[in-house]
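[agent] plan:
  1. take the single chain provided in the ticket
  2. run structure prediction with default settings
  3. attach structure tokens to the ticket
  4. add a short note for the reviewer (M.T.)
[agent] executing step 1
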Amino acid sequence: MKTQRHAAILRVVRERRIESQDELREALADGGFVVTQATLSRDIRELGLAKLADPQGGAYYTHPHRGTVRPELAQVLPTLMVSVDGVGPFLVLKTASGSAGTVTEALDQAGWSEIIGTIAGDDTVLVITRSQRHREEIASRIQELVK
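[agent] step 2 finished; step 3 output follows
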């Protein structure tokens, strides 16, 4: 049942703009999946859905890991970033809960040569840079995009 529900969630967010958990829950109920808010929150986290800001206003759920969206750093950082810190060549980005994967994908897509690799948790991204100087440059770029 969980697998079918997850597939239904992905289908719904791919086919239409979903702006809230209530809206998603209603869409799932229309498809025969009655879920609690707690279950839906857990499903959203497990699927790696992210809520992206729309430049024309509002926000919507998306699943960038399945190719539905290729998030741009300038689009995701202002809404998902919480803090930036680091030491040596390591940069630690704190994000909104469940958003580290989206930030990591956008960062990887940016193709910044100073970055060797990234690792995402639930709300934390570890960015490994080539040097402390590169870490400082990347941190500055990210902070500029967050503004």
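[agent] step 4 note for reviewer: The two ends are 42 Å apart (CA to CA).
[agent] ticket updated
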